[in-house]
Amino acid sequence: MVIGLGRFGSALARELMRTGHEVLGIDTDERIVQQMALELTHTVKADTTEEGTLRELGVSEFDSAVVAIGADIESSILTTSLLLQLGVPSVWAKANSTSHGMILKQLGCHHVIFPEAEMGKRVAHMVSGETLDYVAIDSDFVMVKTEVPSSFDGQTLAELKIRSTYGVTVVAVTTGDGKYVPAFPETVLHQGNQMVVAGQVEPLNEFCKIA
Description:
CATH architecture of the largest domain: 3-Layer(aba) Sandwich
Distance between the termini: 41 Å
Radius of gyration: 21 Å
Shape: elongated
Strand order of the largest sheet: 3-2-1-4-5-6
Number of helices: 9
Largest sheet: 6 strands, parallel
């Protein structure tokens, strides 16, 4: 169930559908609900700040719910609180600010996400030219996509001793056809190929400066 079908919510709902999930999309805007009707399993126009409405929709029967409401922070908080009270097993909520996120966490929301802030960090690392992509797994643990430097060309991961030398782990590399495969100690790196590297922020940033 995705509540709030703005840019973030609609993109999320479409991706869930693409990966084989059934999705109920909910929004207060009839126009948006009609637009998404052919793309989602079900869509409905509803005010999710009303407990009776959520009960009628049978929200407690859903495995998870995502509160993707945009600028209306009050509606976001009320909806999240009601979903938790009604026993939805996994509630995700989009936060628009640090204070908004703190309130959601205090309510007991299982997962609080900051899409704008996370995207800003991701793009900043890409713009810097040191990474091709950047994903934060936790506050101090990230995964990046970067190119194999010339100094690594033709050597195996075992020979390079990347984990002991740099404190990071290469988890996947591209092959000649550009497809990613898992990385093993015997994997040979080639300049121009790409690799996915995981680790804590500081050592990973240092590693990317040589990559």
